[in-house]
Amino acid sequence: MAVWVHLYLLSQCRKLMHSPWHLSLRVSGASLLVLLSHLLIAALFAGGFYAAAQAGLGGFKKEIMGDWMDYFYFSLINITTLGLGDVYPTGHLRAITGIESLTGFVIISCTAQFVYEAIKQKEDSDGQERS
């Protein structure tokens, strides 16, 4: 589901990049959509971690892990593959954590390709204006 959400929002970014708006507005809007996508996916995984922990599939090693922000924090650290190590999963949540890290790697790679294409388009349009 996370990959589908990200691919859908990237397709919307591509449509936005071909809109008649000024290029800087298109790039800014697309960047905000990409950021929204990453945050939404982290929130999806955070909800999954919470649900799985409540179902008894595992937990987290931390003094207190009850606030939604704790789950969202862990999800952001994990999806970016940063992995600080201050919170770590136990039980079957370790598998979900691995899937989230792989998903994060894929969506960050897709985002990097999109950003590269947007920059190249800007450079091409700047070169045409100077000619």
From TrEMBL:
Membrane-crossing residue ranges in chain numbering: 27-50, 71-89, 95-116
Protein name, per record: Ion channel
Keywords noted in UniProt: Membrane, Transmembrane, Transmembrane helix
SUPFAM superfamilies: Voltage-gated potassium channels (SSF81324)
Pfam families hit by this protein: Ion_trans_2
Presence of the UniProt keyword Transmembrane in the record: yes
Residue ranges occupied by any Potassium channel domain in the UniProt entry: 43-119
